[in-house]
Amino acid sequence: MRRGWIAVAWCVLAAAACGSPAQPLNSADAYHTFAAGIHSEGLRYKDAKLLVRDPASEDMLKRMLTEQGLLPSNRGTVWVLLGIIATPTASQIVFDGIKSGGGTTLTADDALARLDAVTGLGYAAYENADPAPLNLLINCLQPTGWPSQVTWKLPEGEFPAQRLRARCISALGLSGRPAAHAELITLRTQLFGVVVGPPQNSEEALVLEAIKTNEFIAAHQPDGLLKYYAQYPQ
After folding, report:
1. For a designed S-S bond to 47, which of 43, 155, 184, 205 qualifies (C-beta 3.0 to 4.6 A apart)?
2. CATH number of the domain that 80 lies in?
3. Would you state the pLDDT for residue 60?
4. Structure pTM?
């Protein structure tokens, strides 16, 4: 999933943006319109925030997860949007989504949806002071964190620990939380020592980017994440 872009229903958001009278999301017609409008072109984070501000959006997204034939990319979108909603129940659904599919080898799209859900946890940690999403991300930085939670495999038959950990690092950056920043600094020191100068490999570059992202968001509160995506559009 490209940074700052989230697949959501254009038609529902367009009605709200243009001042058209929109149906409540809990009506049958509005639900089916929203569900049919989910696709891969995507909207920016600020537009997703606008979409999920309706109190009924959480229940609608939960319902979407029960629909037969929901595309993996759209399932990942639902998990990300639930992360933005950031209630304890929504955050737990996101984490359960990451773990789902245990014991099976997933398709590339199914695996990517679960990686997107990790990003959703980062949004949940940013949106809500509840420490649960942040603690989940911090715990899963450790080598044993994901293996104790996830048992599905990538299409090539490998365990996804490294890819999950990479998403976790980025998600901690997006959280903007001081505790996440401290963990990222500790991780960089553990992996690479006291470093002066540019990163020496892709993993160090990822950690350094997450640290800088976290610092930017924390320094530009309120609305640090909105300002981050405005400064660094994708």
Report:
1. 43
2. 1.25.10
3. 86
4. 0.86
